Amino acid sequence: MKSSQLEKYEVFQAMNNRHSVRKYKPGLTIPKEELEELVEIASTAPSAWNLQHWRFLIIDDQEKKQELLPIAYNQDQIVDSSAVVVLLGDIEAGREASSVYQPLVEKGYMTEEIKDTLVGQIERAYERGKETSFARDAAHLNASLAAMQFMLAAKTKGYDTCPIGGFKRDELIDACNIPDRYVPIMLMTLGTAAKEAHGSERKPVNEVTIYNSF
C-alpha cells in the first residue's frame, strides 16, 4: 500500500474508532512531549486568514484537576483522565495578522504590499466586528476545527478523548486566570479508557445531505 493510501486509511480508522470516553484509567501520565505533539498536529487545522484562533490550556496537575471538578459539574472523567485540555478561542485574533504573514514575506511567498493589504483588511474586519458577534463566532468556528484534529490525533496515538461543552465558564475563567482575550470553547478529557466506549448510531447519508437547495 502506498504511503498516501496508508495515511488516508489511518485517518479513516481514527474517525471510525473515535468515541467519547467518560471513564479513564486514573493515575496515568502523558509525557509533555506527546501532549505538545498533539497540539502541533492539531494546529495544522485550517483557520480564517490563517490567524490560528486556538489556544490549548493543558491541565495535567492532579490538584488543579480536582479544582476543576465542580466547575465541570463533578464529572469523574475530569480527575481520572491524564489531562484536561481547555480549548480557548482568540477573539482578538486580528492582532496576529502581521506576525502570521511576515514570515511569508521573508521567504518570498508574499510581497510586503500584499501583506500590508491583508493586514489592513483583517484589522478593519475586526474593528467593524466589535459591534457584532463576528470575533466570537470566528473564535468558536476556527478553534473547533483544531479541536477535532486534536481528538483524531489523540486516537491515532492510542489515546481517548471526550469533548465537554457543559461547564461553568465564568468560574473556569477565574480558576485558570484566563485573559479577556480568550473565550473557553470546550473541555477535552484525554487519557486511556478504563473500558471501551460503546459506539453510537449515525443518521444515514440521505438524511443529512442536501444538494444545491432545500
UniProtKB/TrEMBL annotation:
<dbReference type="InterPro" id="IPR029479">
    <property type="entry name" value="Nitroreductase"/>
</dbReference>
<keyword id="KW-0560">Oxidoreductase</keyword>
<feature type="domain" description="Nitroreductase">
    <location>
        <begin position="17"/>
        <end position="191"/>
    </location>
</feature>
<dbReference type="Pfam" id="PF00881">
    <property type="entry name" value="Nitroreductase"/>
</dbReference>
<comment type="similarity">
    <text>Belongs to the nitroreductase family.</text>
</comment>
<dbReference type="GO" id="GO:0016491">
    <property type="term" value="F:oxidoreductase activity"/>
</dbReference>
<protein>
    <submittedName>
        <fullName>Nitroreductase family protein</fullName>
    </submittedName>
</protein>
<dbReference type="InterPro" id="IPR000415">
    <property type="entry name" value="Nitroreductase-like"/>
</dbReference>
